[in-house]
Amino acid sequence: MPDDSIERQDCPPMRPAVSRRALLASLAAGAGTGVGVALAIGANDAAAPPLVQSAETPSVERFYGTHQPGIATASQRFAVFAAFDLETGDDAGGAPAGARVAVNFQHLMKRWSDVAAALMAGTPAGPLPVNRAGAPADSGIADGLAPSRLTVTFGLGPELFDRIGRNDLRPKRLRELPAFSTDRLQPAWSGGQLFVQICGDDPQTISHAFRSLRGRAPGLARLRWSQQGFLGRFGAATARNLFGQKDGTANPRPGTAAFDDAVWAHGDEPAWFAGGTYLVFCKIRMNLPKWDTSTAREQELAIGRRRDTGAPLSGGHEFSPLDFSSTGPDGRPLIAPDSHLALVRDVPMLRRSYNYDYAFQVAADPADGHHADRPGHSHDDPLHDHAGAGHDGYDTGMLFCAYLRDPADFVRAQQKMAAADRLNAFVEHTGSAVFAIPPGVQPGRPLAAALFPRR
After folding, report:
1. What is the CA radius of gyration of the chain?
2. How many Å separate Cα 111 from the centre of its chain?
3. CA dihedral defined by 294, 300, 303, 309, rounded to 10 degrees?
4. Nearest of 126, 145, 137, 117 to residue 204 by alpha carbon
5. What percent helix, strand, coil does the chain show, rounded to 5?
6. Is the Cβ–Cβ distance between 360 and 384 less than 8 Å?
7. How big is the CA angle at 97 (ends 91 and 99), to the nearest 5 degrees?
8. Where are the alpha helices (DSSP H) in 171-242?
9. Angstrom distance (rounded) from CA 400 to CA 79
10. Which one of 58, 75, 120, 365 has the lowest number of neighbouring Cβ atoms within 10 Å?
11. What SS3 class is residue 233?
12. Angle 8-199-201 from CA coordinates, rounded to 5°
């Protein structure tokens, strides 16, 4: 294989956009900035305190098991998310394209399963399959570092099953998300046939894991997009997002019936998918300049909770039951019907989101038709994010991850939020994808091996 095969996969491939996303991208220039999103503020009427890492939490997480790691695992501090598309491969022996893609998928799952198991256990992943003679077997960037609760989680996109010729085993609820009226999706940050989530408490071990996985993809799959996220060190407290709000208050606690009912696949799914789940992934851009210049009252009314304690505006503490009948002196409900909390409260899911902050992404060459004297445009306006004006502006927000047994629950909530959520004035979807997350891996059996039974 040519040496530049490793370099090429650093750039997302040119490809036809998914029809939904292509349509929305073409409409984005004329669309408004509001969008309905599930921001994981917390919804259920009664919730347990969040599962967090304690001082006694071990450094090594298990890769093998009934379920994949990185789902019920207590949230780590850093994460990388990436999507890949399968390559067709060379026309060796005259095999049809579909058969070559299926073989590539099986080879990649074997490589990735072995690498994930090794790295999570703190052992070497072995040499890259395309190393030059004399090249080191590993980058060495994680030498001497503990795994730091590293987890690697894999997913399969809606397009994958047709490509590998196993549409008969496609999970029943895996389908592309519909268009939402307030989306502003970028095709470069959306979709994907394969998904990788890498989480851990040390960003260097995460970087090492990503390079180790990506380095085994050339010739089999190409990188489509990647995103990086972080969480603060909050100890036993619920983490906060970049709005300063507590995020994940209503999550079901792993090991409970509520968790199992919200997350793991229904019994009517294909037998191979037992123990699996679904992931809805969204890149949500937050308009922090606008948020930061809003009043505290406006912010809390948009969310439905107090910023300082996370308590619902109906009273109590962070985990108090929600009271939508309680009214204030003006006779209005204390929790507004169009608040984010009111609209997402009945959605059963595990929210496992991360913050991102890419700061100001300014084009190196300003000669792009961007003029400060353009009507309606002023560099003195602190709320103007410059989107669509020749550079990306201030790109910060949330990498929203919802693990749930039926993505249709997310769709129903998203449709309600697109129509009425007060938070729409401060956020927009810029990336979107949905994946089936297969069940866990057993020793000697790569991920999703059941899609190609032994004969």
Report:
1. 22
2. 23
3. 130
4. 145
5. 25, 20, 55
6. no
7. 100
8. 203-214
9. 12
10. 365
11. coil
12. 120
Those residues with Cβ within 8 angstroms of residue 324's Cβ, 6 or more apart along the chain or in another chain: 314, 333, 335, 337, 342
Q: What string of pLDDT tens digits covers the 455 residues of the chain?
A: 433 333 333 333 333 333 444 433 333 333 333 333 445 454 444 444 444 444 445 699 999 999 999 999 999 999 999 999 999 876 555 566 778 999 999 999 999 999 999 999 999 999 888 778 888 888 899 999 999 999 999 999 999 999 999 999 999 999 999 999 889 999 999 999 999 999 999 999 999 999 999 999 999 999 999 999 999 988 778 999 999 999 999 999 999 999 999 999 999 999 999 999 999 999 999 999 999 999 999 999 999 999 999 999 999 999 999 999 999 999 999 999 999 999 988 889 999 999 999 988 765 554 444 444 444 344 443 334 444 333 357 899 999 999 999 999 999 999 999 999 999 999 999 999 999 999 999 999 999 999 998 75
Q: Report the candidate in 278, 349, 348, 338 with the shortest Cα–Cα distance to residue 313.
A: 338
Q: What are phi and psi of 314, to 5 degrees?
A: -80, -10
* Burial class of 254 by CB neighbour count within 10 A (0 to 12, 13 to 18, 19+): middle
| Residue pair 263/252 in contact by the 8 Å Cβ criterion | yes
Q: Which amino acid is at 406?
A: D
What is the amino acid identity at position 427? Answer: V
Q: From the centroid of its chain, how far is CA 60?
A: 23
Identify whether the C-beta of residue 369 lies closer than 8 Å to the C-beta of residue 390: yes
Indicate the pTM of the whole model. 0.83
Share of the chain above pLDDT 90, in %: 70
Residue 424 dihedral angles phi and psi, to the nearest 5°: -60, -25
**Residues contacting 441, CB < 8 A, separation 6+:** 63, 64, 65, 68, 113, 117, 447
Report helix, strand or coil for 227: strand
- Give the residue ranges of DSSP H helices in 215-295: 257-263, 288-292
- DSSP states along 291-336: HHTS-HHHHHHHHSB-TTT--BTTSS-TTSPP-TT-B-TTSSBSS-
Interatomic CA distance for residues 366 and 37, integer angstroms: 33
Write out the two tokens for 125.
Answer: 């992943």
